[in-house]
What we know:
This is Ubiquinone biosynthesis protein COQ9 HTH domain-containing protein. One of its GO terms (biological process) is ubiquinone biosynthetic process. It comes from Leptidea sinapis. By secondary structure, this protein is mainly α. It folds into four domains: 1-113, no CATH class; 147-294, no CATH class; 300-533, no CATH class; 589-691, no CATH class. It is built from 31 helices and four strands. The strands form two sheets. Strands 1-2 form a two-stranded antiparallel sheet. The longest helix has 31 residues, at 413-443. The model is unreliable at 494-533 (pLDDT under 50).
Amino acid sequence: MEHQHDVVGLISILLDSEKYKEALRIPLEERYIQSFKDNCWDLISNIINKINNNTITLKPSLYGACEELLSIIIDKATPEEALLEFIEQIEVAKNDAQFSIILKPLQQLLKKLICKRGRSLEWCLNSISTYIEAIPIPDHNLEGKERILMDSDDNIRRIIRVYSLLPPFYKPFINEMAPIDSNKKTPQIIASFLISLLGKPLIYIDLDPGSNSNGEARLCCSTILGDICLLVKNILKLLPYLEDCYTEVKNNTTRKTNIDDDVDLKPFDHTEKINITTLSGLFYGIFSTHFEVPDLAIPQAVKLIKAHISKFNYKGRNMLIKYIIDNANHSGMIGYAITLYKNSLDEAFQNKCLPDCFTGTHFNSMLKKFCHLPHGEESDLMELADQIITTLNFLRYIALKDTNNVTGIRECFSSIQNDFLEKLRMGLNMSKAHYEAKLKEIENKHGSKKQTNVAISIGGNVLDKIPKQNKKAIINSALNAFHLIEGLIGRLTVRKSHRWVKPTILAPISAKKSFIQPYSQQHENDKIIPTIISEHDESQYEDDIKNKILSKALEFVPKNGWTVEALAQGAETAGYPGIAHGMFPNAGGDLVHFFNVKCNKELVQQMKMWPKVDVNESKIPAQQVENAIMTRLLMIEPYKSTWPRAMAIQALPNNVPNSLATLLSLVDDICYFTGDRSVDAKNMLGINTLK
């Protein structure tokens, strides 16, 4: 009969005797392998009980040996059985050191259980919550400067220490969630756990940025809030849960849940995690401005502003938009407010009578806010680019839309010209001269000893303090914005009946080595010849900008679809402000049309390279037509996931003319380049049917 070895007792004795190397060799010896595997359950509890809060300081070798033994156990044991034992050990952990040493093997086991991770992860997080809730709450009524003493409390320090262990544990599951876990319940499980952490005991810790701005507790809380925003995306959708919790507290009732169906209960329906205390902690962190909310929430906030303003009548909308413009300190926000005003005005034009808030003094007052340069021609045009571009788009819109002068726009022409556009022109020439001089200085700094001393400040940041590799990119982006503004000013002269804006006069910089701007000093030999850009040149210039933006926007279509967001990101990638998407009134329609035209041109270039084939007038070149159609369809493949939306956009009434034009052009090109030069409409009809 084979002798049964007491592996548990043997390893325990070796650890107590500080014979750590011998203990680590036990799992590798052939005579102990099977016994070690059969007793993993008991070994886990025995090894963890060797750890206390002083072990890592007084006996680091013991702590390291225990960590390595636990790592060997999770390799040898059945994952499901080992997981249950580790979960139990968390709930009965006697100190934070035991809690800490359990987290890493627990994480490794969860990584193994990919298919069963959802439920297993929920059990693990529940046991962690149970351990955290058992931490004693500090009982100090400290106020004012006395609150600083809270950091010396043992329980406070313990709470902070335990919370700092959590992000390294759950972060890997968030990072790998997208490619592996298609179950939408898993993000909710983690999010509900993180929300529960914002309740007891964290709410008893001082998180005020005034007294504890760099504290570890604030850093932990900030990390948790960021991860919640990443998982939930739209934090505001949790407001109904807060309302339900408030009603329960007010009426002294409890949420009705079927205990028998607890397995199917949604993560956000667990009252021990989602309650008035935890949600209060969450929304305090979001709305108090004491913590930095991730940019993921900004698009939701922008949509919320639009939805909120649209709830009011026209007068109410104007009041809110005016408030935003008066209080916003960001050009992009002001530009967005101007866009909301333009949309409301366009909606109001559909009525028989325009509301009073869009006419006379009300309209004039709002227009002055739009056409405002804080420091005249010396304003920072780069910082104000979003506001300026949106304003110029609005001016062109109203000049073309209000042909009957219902708003009173014509009475504002002179003030707009003198107080806004003239100063803007001068500011453009000044800014371009400065930026071009700085660009030449950067490009020639190694080749010429004689350099100009030009300093540029953007939003209060001096360009010299920015890394060298980014300087040229910033300057080129600024120059692109200035060229775009010039193009928009030129657009205001398109219609003769509204030719109230003089074309922009471009003052070229002197060809001399010293970059002295012509507006500040002129030499006798310097001849500055004003050049008036013709309407054709302005149109071509504008088309070039549009094509650049549309071409770059296609890169973002797979992610954002045929939307304004793709156009905005395309504009930024092309070096223009994101607000430049206002140049495309049909938004997605313009982007789809550009894509179709671009693909048709590429197809023509490919068909030109195909070998010539003799075709009888009575026979359709089927193989060539099939190749052409297949080539054209393959061009859609990178955008396959978003193409149904593109087809829906093309079917909109305002986009139908362009859609039919590109389709007929495609059919005609295929007929011509596949060798079918017949004037017989039957052949073309056949190709049309194939399409």
